[in-house]
């Protein structure tokens, strides 16, 4: 599916969501609209997807199932704010970065440590630091979403849909913040569709736990929302070698699960 077809599919959900353009990307002589979908309701869940253009499962799940997702949220009086495809030219070309090769790299935070030095990422579950600040640079896609998110009232939960293009097998795992018990039912349900990447090295310094969870203050959009005070935050990974239908099923499990968590937050 090219980006124009994705946009058409997203716009077909205009009956259930307010669809607006939060920015426009100029790449390779073309202009690419950046879309945002909002449904009424409170408390709210914010979903981002398509940061990396070769990780198409998230945008496709949102485009294909937004009607069902919106109905599910509405029945639970949960409002949705959805940024379904953050990197349009990358999506079109199925490349991680944008068409100019700039890196919309999910880089939003700088942590100041006790010794005054700054880091973009912090390892460990609850690392020490003095303060954090918003990192204001980056390619146009990153700047556009940051501007939009700065104006958004902090939701109860934030879910970012990614895919892992490095692991050479079908699997799923998640970067989580806070108490992983909350997300365990979602991982167990996902396991029916894709094996959990348990105790797997996903980075030289990162290994998943037995349920496929990782704690990593990576300065990503999810980490930013965690620092802003959301109650639930996760970045879901399915591997690009997972069958699209299976990745879609896992995305839907986490989206519905997050809607349920947000609904419970009302109690
Ligand atoms: Zn990614």
Structure description:
- The chain is of the alpha/beta class and 267 residues long.
- The protein has a single domain (3-264), classed as Zn peptidases (Aminopeptidase, 3-Layer(aba) Sandwich), CATH 3.40.630.
- It contains 7 helices and 15 strands.
- It has helices at 3-11, 57-75, 88-93, 140-151, 184-190, 221-228, 244-264, and strands spanning 18-27, 30-38, 44-49, 79-83, 109-112, 118-119, 122-123, 131-134, 157-164, 172-177, 201-203, 206-207, 213-214, 216-217, 232-239.
- The strands form 4 sheets. The chain has an 8-stranded mixed β-sheet, with helices on both faces.
- Helix 2 links the parallel strand 3 (44-49) and strand 4 (79-83).
- The mean pLDDT is 96.
- Zinc ion is lined by residues 51-52, 55, 162.
Overall shape: it is globular
CATH topology heading: Aminopeptidase
Helix- and strand-based class?
alpha/beta
Domain tally: 1
Q: Main sheet: which strands, in order across?
A: 1-2-4-3-9-15-10-13
Overall CATH class: Alpha Beta
Instruction: Report the bound ligands by name, code or SMILES.
Output: zinc ion
- Which homologous superfamily in CATH is the superfamily? Zn peptidases
Distance between the termini: 41 Å
- Counting DSSP H or I runs of 4 or more residues, the number of helices is 7
The portion of residues forming beta strands comes to 25-35%
| Percent range of helical residues | 25-40%
pLDDT < 50 stretches: none
CATH architecture: 3-Layer(aba) Sandwich
């Amino acid at each position: 599916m090219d980006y124009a077809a994705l946009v058409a599919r997203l716009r077909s959900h205009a009956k259930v969501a307010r669809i607006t353009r939060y920015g426009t990307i100029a790449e390779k002589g073309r202009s690419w609209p950046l879309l945002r979908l909002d449904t009424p309701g409170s408390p709210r869940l914010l979903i981002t997807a398509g940061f990396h253009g070769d990780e198409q499962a998230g945008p496709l799940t949102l485009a294909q199932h937004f009607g069902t997702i919106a109905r599910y949220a509405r029945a639970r009086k949960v409002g949705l704010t959805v940024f379904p495809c953050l990197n349009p030219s990358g999506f079109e070309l199925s490349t991680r970065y944008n068409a100019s090769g700039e890196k919309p790299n999910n880089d939003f935070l700088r942590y100041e440590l006790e010794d005054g030095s700054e880091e973009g990422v912090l390892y460990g579950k609850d690392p020490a630091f003095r303060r954090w600040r918003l990192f204001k640079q980056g390619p146009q896609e990153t700047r556009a979403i940051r501007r939009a998110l700065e104006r958004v009232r902090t939701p109860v939960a934030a879910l970012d849909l990614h895919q892992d293009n490095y692991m050479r097998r079908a699997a799923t795992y998640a970067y989580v913040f806070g108490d992983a018990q909350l997300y365990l039912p979602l991982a167990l349900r996902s396991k029916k569709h894709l094996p959990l990447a348990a105790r797997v090295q996903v980075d030289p310094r990162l290994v998943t736990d037995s349920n496929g969870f990782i704690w990593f203050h990576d300065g990503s959009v999810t980490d930013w929302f965690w620092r802003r005070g959301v109650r639930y935050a996760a970045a879901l990974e399915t591997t690009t070698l997972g069958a699209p239908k299976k990745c879609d099923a896992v995305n839907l499990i986490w989206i519905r699960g997050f809607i349920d968590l947000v609904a419970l937050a009302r109690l």
